[in-house]
Queue: 3 jobs
Job 1
Amino acid sequence: MTKLTSPSTSSKTRNPRALQSTFVSVLAVILLSCSIASADPPAIQHAGTYTGREPVTDWLMSEKLDGIRGYWTGKELVTRKGYRIHAPGWFTKHFPPFALDGELWRRRNDFAFVQRTVLDEVPSENWKEITYNIFEVPEAAGDFLARLEKAAAWFKAHPAPHVRTIEQTQCRGPNHLDAFLKKIELLGGEGVIVKNPALPFHAGRSPHMLKVKNFSDMEGTVIAHTPGKGKFEGMMGSITLRLENGIEFKLGTGFTIADRKHPPPVGAVVTFKYQGFTQKGIPRFASFMRVRGD
């Protein structure tokens, strides 16, 4: 612990350069805290989880893209938590003056590349490989298809080759949904989103927009590391996660050797997949997927 001394204690504590350096460091922390606190999350819609009991016939289904969610405010691109995405000027040059919600994506099983590119404060040439895939037009009037049509009409008049509207398929029933999910998974996709197209937009968790997967995923905050043993000696063995509801548990599977040598730091938010819960509320068969940087 750093020991604070009064100016009269010793001449060594009155080094102007040291005091100036300390002041600058403290100021930087204050400014960073203010910047973080100033983020204003957009009013977005969150998918619920499909249970198999919902009446999905005639709903619309599409592939759930595994990228970084990008919300266009009408002026700038931000993350789901409201932090600015430093996209190059050419990327958003032809974006409309109204809000869009979509996924910044390159291809399946490529989340690390997208996250590294999209969350970099200095945009790189890698942005040329990123596409913006629109799945909602939050402030538009009308039903789901009418809202999507507003975006499609805009980009027809203002072409941007890296922007597209996610293709929607009408669901003929649960069996059709299962077959569609199987097709997406065989292609290496993460899952499916199915949505009631008849409703106007509303923000928050929605029982009318559902994610469909053969596993569930969740996020937790790293609060501790446990050293590895045996073949993992000298590396990380497991991490302890705290969930939003306060439950804590150890996660030790799904990591590569590189992950174990350089584990997610304390305070990082990680995504893991699981299959149900124990009686104590701990995720069953939990397996690490990735660190969330957005």
Job 2
Amino acid sequence: MLKELQLTNFRKFTNLKLSFKSDSIAIVGGNASGKTTVLESIMHLSTGKGTFPSHAYVKNGEKFFRVKGTIVSSRQPPSEIIVFFDASKREKKVLINRKLAPRLAELIGLMPTINLNMNSLQWIWGPVEWRRKQIDLLLAQTDRTYLETLIKHYRLLEQRNKALKTTHDNALFITYGEMLYETSSIIRKYRLALIATLNELIGPLLERLIPDKAKSLELKYVPFDDGDWQSKIEKEKELGYTLWGAQRDQLIWEVGGTEANVFLSRGEGARLALATVIALWLWTARKRKHVTLLADDWEAFQDRKYLEKVPSFLLSVKPSNSSIFIASLNRLKESQWQQIMLDNQ
């Protein structure tokens, strides 16, 4: 679990050091106190990046930021992760146990994170591209083969799209296409298995959160039909990009075969988003250790009917091999939380 966090020139913090004595942490403070910044720094330790471009995290007037985290395991010696960004060179470096990582991807999987925030509503009302990205990030954090296949897939896609714009070599398009078809098949195998398990895990959560619609809700994964991909080459040359592949697959919440966003109220949608993120959290905790849920803005997007219950609900379902960091405007009433107060100055 993450036991220590140090921030240098990261957003509003010149120097901040936090120690965590629990696996249920509440970062408490008012608006602009730095709650989201703390959670974003943990995202950097997990994936090497946050919501915004790297330069946006450098404190005004400074030339770099540094995020350092110490992970402690019961069976292994502590691990140290440092993410360093040099603003003048626009260069990011990652050190794992004081050794320079050859690429950012080496971070993926060391401390998997799942986010619960305003963006979580996109599980119901957002674009399918966003949902695919979340599934891909989660799978990449739990399986190195998936990560490498995904990297290869998008590299091939970029190369094929460039060729479609610059050459007329059908043999080259077919060669890239055959490799892209192979990576798409592997990606879909992983995605389909995840979605099947996710629908099993989410059932009991929906019974507690949306009991009247629990049995009719289903997360559907619909692969794009690639069977005739070679017949699309002429049209692809005209448009300059690939018209098929795993990057075009659909991921949609449905109620009785119709998109759920048509039937759900905002409150029901917020609770479905909550259930989706928790189910992903439970699934990840089956695969990896040191899984961390980062909960931010939950007070803004949860409906009033369930608002006060969210912290207790998270504690009640938390896997034993994971942790929670929740940003809160007010102190939480449950004694299980280690509550860290941030100064608004």
Job 3
Amino acid sequence: MRVDEFDFELPAELIAQKPLEARDASRLLVVHREDGRREDRHFSDIVEYLEPGDVLVVNDSRVLPARLWGRNKQRSGPVEILLLRPYGEGLWEVLVRPGKKAKPGAEIEFSPRLSCRVMETTASGGRLVRFEFEGDFDAILTELGETPLPPYIHEKLDDPERYQTVYAKHSGSVAAPTAGLHFTPELLAAIRSRGVAVAPLTLHVGLGTFRPVQAENVEDHVMHEEFFELSPESADLINTRRAAGGRVVAVGTTSVRVLETAAGDNGTVQPGSGWTSIFIYPGYQFKAVDALVTNFHLPKSSLLMLVSAFAGRETIMRAYEHAIAERYRFFSFGDSMLLL
């Protein structure tokens, strides 16, 4: 299967640069997989499509203030670092700009309390660095760091919390699980009052989520790894609801990746944690997901391939054509889809 089959033309003005004032005021394109039927709704209407006994699975990962600005102690000029992945004991994989100022052995200072030494260059062109700090690393990062926004967003965000879900809890992502940005506490309360359970899990979103697939053939793509955790309580809730006939409604492709990683052939999910590099594209047989809430994704991305696997490539590409014609807003701060 060729990657070009997942390409589409998107007018630049449809790439949302800022969130709407009200999270749940975004539009919702409801797509019925069985017959391809579409409905144009608003996100707050999602309650109407959820049934008592369903379980809504959300990713409670919180975006790190992962962008740091420092200076190379040996060379002048600013250095930008983006945290990607922790390895323990102060070690992190990072991206550095400009890379020429971050050769192995270089020392980068961010403040009198925080600095790092470049240990080595990684296979992907990043750097492995060891941080040295005084006090609590997370607190220092919160003080000095900046929440990174996707490269297609060119406007500064007035309120960084708008790039966090209202249920964000566990820090570790470098990008938000954006399908969840539409939920408000009031909407979640209405969903629960309808008899729908809400089960959290965690997947820390990596930078690879923004990268288009570079291979010519889908099957040749090597998927990036992301850390996940599914608690025994959430696993039990998901399994109990599904066994009783309820649907598992995944919020976002990140929740799908955890559920399908944790699921056995019979659809039962097992609690646990670790790294997943699951790559879901058309032909994949889903085991644990019955419905999906998702934003509109980048052309040629692994995320577009995942939703195409779930609803069918032709159904998704026609839905995208409809969304463009109807002037839906795309990507992180854009509108949403509900695939039933």
